[in-house]
Amino acid sequence: MRRSESQAQNRQVNSGAGVYLERIDAKTFKTSFHSFRHNFEDACRNGGIPPHIMNALQGHSEQGMAGRYGDGQYKLGLLKDAVDRIDDSEWDFGPVSRIT
């Protein structure tokens, strides 16, 4: 996929997410689709997840020379273990959980 196609898809997802957040009355000054990424990064840091695993979970490519070696793939079990370390006990899913 070309970069321009990817950017167009990202804009479409962001727009749709904004409409969804408004519909469920969860849209505020500090909420957007992108804010989910920021919250996820904070949760990963607080869970002690290494930056390279956090980047893999977010779909980011590995930077520097490390990104040039190997196939760049992590085993699913390793990623699952990292996700299991995330503490979501303080997250408020109230508005989202109301939608059926």
TrEMBL record:
- Which InterPro entries is this protein grouped with? DNA_brk_join_enz (IPR011010), Integrase-like_cat_sf (IPR013762)
Might you name a Gene Ontology BP term for this protein? DNA recombination
Which keywords annotate this record? DNA recombination
Q: What is this protein called?
A: Tyr recombinase domain-containing protein
Q: Which Gene3D superfamilies match?
A: Intergrase catalytic core
- Taxonomically, the superkingdom here is Bacteria
Xref: SUPFAM superfamilies: DNA breaking-rejoining enzymes
- An example molecular function term from Gene Ontology annotations: DNA binding
